[in-house]
Amino acid sequence: MPERWSHRTDVLIVGAGLAGLYASLEAAARGARVTLVTKGSLQSSNSFMAQGGIAAAVADDDDPALHAADTLAVGRGIADPAAVEVLVRDGIRRVADLERLGVEWDRDEAGRPELAREGGHSRNRIFHAGGAATGAAIARALIVRVLADERVRVVEHAAAIGLLGGGEACAGAWVLGHDELVPVRARMTLLATGGAGALYARTTNPAGATGDGIALAQRSGARVRHMEFVQFHPTAVAAGGRAFLVSEAVRGEGAHLVSADGERFMPAEHPDAELAPRDVVTRVLQARLERGEASFLSLRHLDPDHVQGRFPSLVEGCAGLDIDLCRDPVPVAPAAHYLMGGIATDLDGATSLAGLYASGESACTGAHGANRLASNSLLECFVFAHRAVHAGLDAPTMDAPDGPAPERPLARARLPELRRRMWEDAGPVRDRDGLEGLLAWLDGQPESNPVRVATLIASAALERRESRGAHLRRDFPDLDPTLEGAEPCAAASSTT
Ligand SMILES: Cc1cc2nc3c(=O)[nH]c(=O)nc-3n(C[C@H](O)[C@H](O)[C@H](O)COP(=O)(O)OP(=O)(O)OC[C@H]3O[C@@H](n4cnc5c(N)ncnc54)[C@H](O)[C@@H]3O)c2cc1C
């Protein structure tokens, strides 16, 4: 353990993606002592890989009400209007904060931030940096600040493996680093452990995205919800061993989706063609796949100098797969990308356990409903981490017993098989037989975070007998309007 390691702190933040980094700075600015633990390095997170950008309604022709309407429309009837309202209104202030913290947006010739368009957005409202390297640009700026702040203790390569506290409250976490299991006590614990895309064989996420925080919280009795809603991004490269993402921003700049014959197929599917919401494009590509028809992104009709200048990291990533992004048709297919569900929180990031907060992709505020609007997830990280820190520091301190230490290490899951089965049976298309078979297999596996989170996803998917947003049931292909109506954004005390 590093020298600065301590076992007691004001605020324990688990996870150093954008939600955790920003929360650390915000808590430190309030004078709190912060311990930030991450199981990898500060540079290993989904956040670091984020490409297209962050949405905020600041353009002259835009309005937060329009941003909210777009978010609710793609949320397919179950996004929580109150959470959406907070997201789009607080979001404008949080994007301004980022600029103050040193983030440099890409700018137009007049020096104004260049605002891009992505699927499901009715206006150009996506701030971006480094072309399509927005996550890394923001993270680097925040990491500089975090490392310079004496009130923040950063502990890398240390994993939270259990929560301290018993019953109704959380008093910190058990942290395992370099084979030493340490109880880190805190008056406020924030889980910012990200999503669970790495539970799927085909994913845009890094290997560490195994939903740890969701498993820890749920194991301690916190409520989780909307776990059936896993977003599958339509345009991950279908070549090479990994699902390299080609951002939706590329379609925002005019890229086409074409068949092997070079024919565009999206105009016949949706009035917004390639800029239809993500769930629509994914369903079209998935249906084509099942008919044996490949799909390609084509940028050949765009100015190659513009493509090179606007998307240098994507040109480079594709070149690594022997694909010339400007000239070649890029084979694409859906890949697991984002978890709309997670640890249930209220509008201040509070979970159903006192002292425990969650932000970013590990949390479910209800703002995304059944399908997340592009570039709303980075926004969510800042908006709800900010609210959580202030709510947590304003809450009365409480005493909770440590509770028993977790067993360590938790059994290692058979990840390659779990990922294959999750893709086949809880992937872009699901049905009862597949989900029941998957659950039976999971039931026979030793307890671990991946097994627990996979079980939460599969059982929620089995329970939802309809198709809605990112959740597509072969045996219930239609949306069931009787299941409509947002679940209010409140952290109830029951566990699902
Ligand atoms: C390729 C790609 C492109 C994307 N592009 C965009 C985009 O353009 N716009 C947008 O809005 N969204 C985008 N997203 C989604 C977005 O990046 C994520 O939703 C967001 O970054 C999540 O941030 P986070 O802080 O919640 O979690 P993460 O960034 O995933 O960070 C999680 C952190 O928790 C740590 N951790 C996990 N478990 C433990 C544990 N047990 N103990 C200690 N630490 C732990 C991890 O090491 C990591 O530091 C993209 C995602 C991907 C994969």
What report would you give on this structure?
The chain is of the alpha/beta class and 496 residues long. It has three domains: 276 residues, FAD/NAD(P)-binding domain; 104 residues, Alpha-Beta Complex (Flavocytochrome C3, Chain A, domain 1), CATH 3.90.700.10; 66 residues, Methane Monooxygenase Hydroxylase, Chain G, domain 1, CATH 1.20.58. Helices cover 32% and strands 16% of the residues. It has 14 helices and 16 strands. The strands form four sheets. Strands 1, 2, 5, 6, 7, 8 and 15 form a seven-stranded mixed β-sheet that branches. Helix 1 links the parallel strand 1 and strand 2. Helix 13 runs antiparallel to helix 14. Flavin-adenine dinucleotide binds next to helix 1, helix 2, helix 5, strand 6 and helix 11.
Outline of the structure:
With 496 residues, this protein is an alpha/beta fold.
Secondary structure layout:
Blueprint: E1 8-14, H1 18-29, E2 34-37, H2 46-49, E3 54-55, H3 64-74, H4 81-100, E4 126-127, H5 134-148, E5 152-155, E6 158-164, E7 172-177, E8 180-191, H6 212-219, E9 224-225, E10 230-237, H7 248-252, E11 256-258, H8 278-290, E12 295-298, H9 304-310, H10 312-319, E13 330-339, E14 342-344, E15 356-358, E16 363-364, H11 376-394, H12 415-426, H13 432-443, H14 449-463
Parallel strand pairs: 1-2, 1-8, 2-5, 8-15, 14-16
Antiparallel strand pairs: 3-4, 6-7, 7-8, 9-14, 10-13, 11-12, 12-13
Helix pairs in contact: 1-5, 1-11, 3-4, 4-11, 6-14, 12-13, 12-14, 13-14
The protein binds flavin-adenine dinucleotide.
